């Protein structure tokens, strides 16, 4: 992946709505990490949503890539706390100054069932040893 596609939290992107974040794994409602970063008081739940990509089982959490044309199911949030994105960057081990060393990278992606773009944390490591979550739905996968 080219570093030119990734934008630091403080950089604005003309014509995009950077006040949204798409979460597809352990940060969704009902998972422990949702409370760890105090999402309920820092972002407004805007509904379930989908992004194009592939979801992988990495053990305790999933990783999404832009490979393929499947749909990854997640939750869309409107960010209400300016510091949330930086805290999510730390949580996801995204280092804007060194994307090669990042476990996840934050990328602005289209939310396919909404007319907007949102920040998405994409897995930045090899996936050949990971199982694909065929349904694209981490919640369903973990409950089944």
TrEMBL record:
Residues 21-139 form the Gamma-glutamylcyclotransferase AIG2-like domain. SUPFAM superfamilies: Gamma-glutamyl cyclotransferase-like. Coiled coil: none annotated. InterPro entries: AIG2-like_dom (IPR009288), GGCT-like (IPR013024), GGCT-like_sf (IPR036568). CDD domains: GGCT_like (cd06661). It comes from the Archaea. It holds the Pfam family GGACT. This is Gamma-glutamylcyclotransferase. It comes from Halorutilus salinus.
């Amino acid at each position: 992946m080219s570093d030119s596609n990734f934008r630091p939290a403080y950089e604005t992107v003309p014509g995009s709505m950077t006040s949204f974040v798409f979460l597809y794994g352990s940060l969704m409602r009902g998972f422990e990490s949702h409370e760890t970063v105090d999402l309920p008081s820092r972002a407004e739940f805007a509904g379930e949503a989908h992004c194009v990509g592939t979801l992988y089982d990495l053990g305790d959490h999933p990783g999404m890539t832009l490979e393929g044309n499947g749909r990854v199911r997640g939750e869309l949030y409107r960010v209400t706390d300016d510091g949330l994105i930086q805290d999510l960057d730390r949580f996801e081990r995204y280092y804007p100054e060194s994307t090669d060393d990042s476990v996840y990278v934050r990328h602005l992606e289209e939310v396919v069932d909404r007319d907007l773009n949102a920040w998405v944390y994409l897995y930045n490591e090899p996936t050949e040893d990971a199982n694909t979550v065929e349904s694209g739905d981490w919640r369903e996968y973990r409950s089944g």
